[in-house]
Structure formats: structure tokens, C-alpha cells
Amino acid sequence: MATEAASSEFYLRYYVGHRGKFGHEFLEFEFRSDGRLRYANNSNYKNDVMIRKEAWVSQSVVQELRRVVAESEITSEDDNQWPTADVNGRQELEVVVNGEHISFVTTKIGSLLDVQESKDPEGLRVFYYLVQDIKCLVFSLIGLHFRVKPI
Question: In terms of C-beta density within 10 A (0-12 exposed, 13-18 middle, 19 or more buried), how is residue 100 classed?
């Protein structure tokens, strides 16, 4: 029973941010296996306030997220050769899936050129595209869930 619970456990957290002229600015979201989605976006630009959203997604969304993570093969990557976090900021990706807990930390990636010029372009490319896919999903879910005038 414990192995069944471990294999069904799922958690994903992504953070990207930096400390700069406008303070600590960041985007962070997390998914839990029960369907809970938490989202935070903090920008102090023009005295903007932190945006926090929480929503519940169906198990089919969680299963699709698990599929995307599994197909990316991110669990076989290693961030030792990736650029370290610096003054430009940092990105973190934490995933718990199939009893495996992995965590990645790297600097903010501006473009694919940054990926290609790294010491591990193949591994960083997997990370880069997975993050892009997950961010698109999160922005779609948050936008649909909190739309003022639903279609």
C-alpha cells in the first residue's frame, strides 16, 4: 500500500525570480496530486501588488501534467553542469513523481542561445522546454478559471 501511495504522489513547484531595483520579483506555482494549484506573481513595478491565486484542477489535468513531465524525461537530467543562479535571477523546478523527488536550480534563461552556450545544452534544453510547456498550461488554467467574463 505504501508503494502504491508513493507512485500516485505528485508534486510540482516552479519558481523564477530575482532581486532588483523593484525588490523581490517572482513567479511561482505549484501543483499537488489532489488537484490543488497555487499561483503567485509578485512585481513591484509601478507599485504593483502581489497576485495570489488558488484553484482546483481535475484529476485529468493532473494526469496530463504527469504525462508531460514523464515524456520530457526530466528525471534523468542533472543540473550540475547548468549555469548557477546569479544576479540575473534563478529558476527552480521541484518534482515528486513515481516515488522520485528531484530538484533543479539554474539561472534565468533568456533565450535558446543561453541554452546552447551552456556546458550541458541537451539537459538544459529538456528543462527549458518543459518549463515553457508547464507555464503555458498554468497561464491558461489561471486565465480560464479567473476570467471576469466567461465565454
Answer: exposed
HEC secondary structure over 5-52: HHHHCEEEEEEEEEEECCEEEEEEEEEECCCEEEEEEECCHHHCCCEE
In angstroms, rounded to a whole number, what is the distance separating the alpha carbons of residues 31 and 140?
14
> What's the pTM?
0.86
N-terminal to C-terminal alpha carbon distance within the chain: 44
Cα four-point dihedral sign 51, 106, 93, 1: negative
Instruction: Report d(CA 41, CA 104) in Å as an integer.
Output: 20
How far apart CA 116 and CA 74 sit, in angstroms, is 17
pLDDT in tens, the chain (151 residues): 444 555 579 999 999 998 877 778 899 999 999 999 999 998 876 777 788 899 999 999 999 999 999 999 999 999 999 999 998 899 999 999 988 999 999 999 988 898 999 999 999 999 999 999 999 999 999 988 887 555 5
